[in-house]
Design brief:
Elements lengths: L20 H35 L7 H34 L7 H32 L4 H23 L7 E3 L3 H14 L6 E4 L10 E4 L6 E5 H6 L2 H16 L2 H23 L9 H38 L2 H15 L7 H7 L5 H10 L5
Parallel strand pairs: 2-4
Antiparallel strand pairs: 1-2, 3-4
Helix pairs in contact: 1-2, 1-9, 2-3, 3-4, 4-8, 5-7, 7-9, 7-10, 10-12
């Protein structure tokens, strides 16, 4: 449930002593510059792509060269333009607030790694699209739309094996007693797990998290080592119950299916809106169109994500029957991650993939065991 102030337009936390006015204000001071930076990043990306769409001349060279080089060049320009802001928000301020454990060198390596991945994820699909257009100018969309959807599914399956190890090292949970408790919990949900992995998140930040990733044979449960360091066994079990709730409801699979459908739909929009997707001059137009479609879809994506998180929260309560642990766990998560406790309503609708901590505590207080 949400509590909206008719005066400020903010979400209002319930009258709960866990969230003092000082805590709300502190979280606000941390998050507001981050929201401004995100807006600036969006403006930079839209500005660069719009300028390129107007500036790039048709038939600037061989299609196979232009459609490969231009996406990488545009991602590079955007990355360079946003580098000062990214450094201030992602490195300097994270150190000021006591979250970051990275050196400048390690942060720079991460920034470069993210650039390379973004460049690859832009250049490869655009080049493949251009190749299909040149192969079959009339029927390319019949191959490209299902092909884009298939690539999203393949990525969802392979990401835990290919992408995630680029950023973290994963090891089996060493605490055998806790591991057995978590396996027993998973068996009670009808979603058994063979292994629980721990990510070395502490090398970057003190923030805590857990997640389920992968589809089918690569599906796995991952705990941050920071979560294990800051939460007791009952709280870890509650967090895992939440993730098992996602797994039992097949949220990852559903999300992958929706992303695949979105990729196919984007291809159809390009087919309708772009005269010649095989021309290098169309590259910035395609990238601008894709970015605009992501922004349009964002409120619906976050609303669905919040609904799934509420379902997972209810599942964690049903599985553990411990509203007291639910309360302490989410208070600890909110404190460790300095979660925004009272965001503006419009920002909440646009960006928040999870209910706020006050919403979650209110839901936990209202929960009753099923008869």
């Amino acid at each position: 449930m949400s509590y909206i102030s008719p005066v400020s337009g903010h979400l209002l936390p319930p009258n709960d002593p866990a969230f003092t006015s000082e805590a709300i204000e502190r979280a606000s001071r941390y998050h507001r510059p981050r929201y401004i930076a995100l807006l600036a990043d969006t403006v930079i990306s839209l500005g660069v792509l719009a300028a390129a769409a107007m500036w790039v001349h048709p038939r600037i060279g061989a299609w196979w060269l232009g459609c490969g080089v231009l996406p990488i060049s545009l991602v590079a320009v955007i990355s360079i333009a946003r580098l000062p802001l990214a450094y201030d928000i992602g490195f300097r301020r994270e150190h000021v607030w006591g979250f970051s454990a990275q050196s400048r060198w390690a942060w720079g390596v991460d920034f470069l790694r993210n650039f390379l991945l973004s460049a690859a994820f832009s250049a490869v699909p655009i080049w493949a699209l251009a190749a299909l257009v040149h192969w079959s100018p009339r029927w390319w969309v019949a191959v490209a739309a299902p092909g884009a959807a298939t690539l999203v599914v393949v990525f969802g399956v392979l990401a835990p094996l290919v992408m995630e190890p680029l950023f973290n090292r994963f090891t089996p949970l060493a605490d055998s007693e806790l591991a057995n408790r978590l396996r027993s919990l998973a068996e009670r949900t009808g979603t058994p797990i063979s292994n629980v992995l721990v990510a070395d998140a502490s090398k970057r930040s003190g923030k805590v998290n857990a997640y389920v990733s992968g589809v089918g044979p690569t599906r796995r449960l991952v705990l941050y080592d920071t979560l294990l360091a800051k939460a007791d066994a009952a709280e870890v079990e509650l967090v895992v119950a939440n993730e098992l709730g996602h797994r039992r409801a097949r949220h990852v699979a559903k999300g992958t299916a929706l992303a695949a459908a979105g990729a196919a739909l984007t291809t159809l929009v390009i087919w309708v809106a772009v005269d010649n997707p095989g021309d290098p001059a169309s590259v910035p137009v395609i990238m601008l169109l894709g970015f605009a479609l992501e922004l349009v879809a964002l409120p619906w994506q976050t609303a669905l994500s919040r609904q799934w998180e509420r379902e997972a929260d209810r599942a964690s309560l049903d599985l553990t029957g411990r509203p007291d642990v639910f309360r302490t766990a989410h208070m600890r998560l909110a404190e460790a991650n300095l979660s925004d406790l009272n965001p503006p309503r419009w920002l909440y609708r646009l960006l928040f993939t999870h209910p706020t901590p006050p919403e979650r505590l209110a839901a936990g207080a209202a929960w009753r065991p099923s008869s």
